[in-house]
Amino acid sequence: VQLQASGGGLVQAGGSLRLSCAASESMFTLMSWYRQAPGKQRELVASITDGEVPSYAGSVKGRFTISRDSAKNTVYLQMNSLKPEDTSVYYCHLRNMFNRDYWGQGTQVTVSS
């Protein structure tokens, strides 16, 4: 399984970005976005199940939206009202039907104050 993440960049506080994660496999039980800031542990940001049920970390709830385009095998993370503390490398994750985990390369998100 290959995951191709894109969409990171530099944005001012209050701005928006949309991350994309294209998967080479359409069968999964869970796709997620994680992030890791320098010196910190990787943390879960948002997940979406194969039934398209989303869940969010408390720190992003109401600002971020995870969604899926089944036809494109792509999951998106729409990030609005970005804050400097959202600055991190964001990683796409997929768990397949055999409970194997796959990771995409990170994409840098930098929010300036």
Q: What would you say about this model in short?
A:
Helices cover 0% and strands 54% of the residues.
Can you offer a commentary on this structure?
By secondary structure, this protein is mainly beta. Helices cover 0% and strands 54% of the residues. It contains no helices and 11 strands. A hairpin with a 4-residue loop joins strand 7 and strand 8. The N and C termini lie far apart (37 Å).
Uncertain spans, ≥5 residues at pLDDT below 50? none
Calculate the terminal CA-CA distance, rounded to whole Å: 37 Å
Going by helix content, strand content and strand pairing, the class is mainly beta
Number of helices: 0
What share of residues is helical?
under 10%
Radius of gyration: 13 Å
What can be said about the biggest beta sheet? 7 strands, mixed
How many β-strand runs?
11
Arithmetic mean pLDDT? 95
| Shape label | globular
SSE arrangement, N to C:
EEEEEEEEEEE
Which band does the percent of strand residues land in? over 45%
